[in-house]
Amino acid sequence: MTAGTGPSAAAGDSPEPVERVTLTTAFQSKDYRIFWLGALVSNAGSWLQNIAIPFVLFHLTDSALWVGLGTFSLAMPNMLVGPLGGALADRHDRRRVLMVTQFTMALVAAVFWLYWAFDGRSRWVILALTSITGVVNGLNIPSWQAFVPGLVPRRHLTSAITLNSLQFNAARAIGPAVGGVVLATLGPSWAFGLNALSFGFVLAALQVVRARYERPRDGIRLGVISGFVDAIDYIKVNTGILIAMVVAVLVGFFGNPLTQFTVIFAEDIFDRGAMGVGLLSASLGVGAMAMAPIAGSDRWDRSFLVKWALFAYGLSIISFALSPNIVFGAMAILCAGGAFLICVSVTNTAVQVIVSDRMRGRVMAARVMSFTASYPIGSLLQGALADVIGARQTVAFAGSALLVTALVLVSKPERLQLLDRYDTNDE
User: What is the total count of domains within the chain?
Assistant: First the structure.
């Protein structure tokens, strides 16, 4: 039985028609369409900055470790403020929280632009501004994750979550592709400035849309820490959520640092400069977009998709490590992007369909924190290791670790099958 199939009708009853959910089902909601388009433009702008930061750090330091520090300074503050972000999402109007955080990130991007435009070149100032972005983004993400499901009927949740991931990965394709040209021709200040302007689109969308979720009735008066502990206890007894989070953490730790290595491979190994950075970074997004219809359909069990995506992700990363030139590297990255989309989007969907809405903000904060922490720690360790043994060897090791992870999960199929649960009733 596939993941979207409901129970059989009783004998003698006429079965009710079952709506088949496809990738684009969530677009039936006008509010969702508006928000999706605004977010696409804004996130494409953010990816201009996301590739500009490692680009300038590598040029200033010629060190893979400093590239890893750039990732660490963005993601670790993001993780540390997660409990507060989750509390904000469950206590306050999520749309208003998003408007404040998005506006603040636009201001920080404008400061980035002014600093570089007026010849600021301190690596420490760049890390400081990146850290501020990470703090604000950490407050933003739980409300974002909890806000999206409220824009559609619950039966369209799989489509909405996957389209949200598709939007992010479409931006991941568009932003770096444009960013490579911008960095090579206009310089980093333009990348920072265009990112600041792009926030206007999502802010305009937030002015228009209205979510249909009901404000949670329970747990609102809990303190930040006690509310977060409550969420951890909830996760412990919902093993499907726990398994989804573990898979995401392993993908973040071993696989996600591939993003920072695109800069190192393009610059040092393939000798293609900023245009090469744009090509490799965009390939990740294009690969993810290609796999979105599979991730967004209810035709396959989530456990089936995650299992094979982990194998594909590990093999793709190893292939990238062994690539003789940028063409083969881009092909490997393309496959890695598709596998990454399935792993992250499908596990995210599993959490969203299991969690009660009264806990949604805090549980999503815990999920984001665990995934976000795994990324900078993995980036920092892999960056340091690459300075010692080389980038190719480090990336090959990470891909091999993901293959081992897939083998372990396959040996315990009853655990992975918990991702297929559909416990959607609020208690």
Answer: 1
Could you tell me if residue 150 is inside a domain? Answer: yes
> CATH number of the domain that 404 lies in?
1.20.1250.20
At 5-51, the pLDDT tens digits run 433 334 444 444 456 677 788 999 999 999 999 999 999 999 888 88
Burial class (CB in 10 A: 0-12, 13-18, 19+), 318: buried
The reply to whether 149 falls in a domain is: yes
CA angle 49/195/172 to nearest 5° reads: 60
Q: Give 38-90 pLDDT, tens digit per residue.
A: 999 999 999 888 888 988 998 898 887 888 788 788 878 888 888 898 888 88
109 exposure class (CB count in 10 Å sphere: 0-12, 13-18, 19+): buried
Cβ-based neighbour number of residue 16 at 10 Å: 8
Helix/strand/coil percent split, the chain, to 5: 80, 0, 20
Q: Are 257 and 67 in contact (CB under 8 A)?
A: no
For residues 112 and 93, give the distance between their C-alpha atoms in angstroms, rounded to a whole number.
Answer: 29
Look up residue 420 and give its two tokens.
């297929």
Tell me the C-alpha distance between 305 and 31, whole Å: 29
Shortest CA distance to 348 belongs to which of 333, 360, 335, 334? Answer: 360
3-state secondary structure of 40: helix
**Per-residue model confidence as pLDDT tens digits over 109-148:** 999 999 999 999 899 999 999 999 999 998 998 899 889 8
Q: Place 399 in a pLDDT band, splitting at 50, 70 and 90.
A: very high
For residue 76, the enclosing domain spans 25-210+220-420
Q: What is the dihedral of CA 84, 90, 95, 96, to 10 degrees?
A: -60
Separation in Å, CA 138 to CA 85, 207, 366, 370:
6, 22, 11, 12
| pLDDT tens digits, one per residue of 166-219 | 787 677 767 777 887 888 889 899 999 999 999 999 999 999 998 765 455 444
Of the candidates 71, 60, 62, which has an alpha carbon nearest to the alpha carbon of residue 260?
71
CA-based radius of gyration for the chain = 21
Domain annotation covers residue 10: no
Q: Phi then psi for 296, rounded to 5 degrees?
A: -90, -5
> What whole-number distance in Å separates Cα of residue 236 and Cα of residue 348?
17
Reading the block at residue 376, the tokens are 């900078």
> Would residue 1 count as lying in a domain?
no
333 phi/psi in degrees, rounded to 5: -65, -35
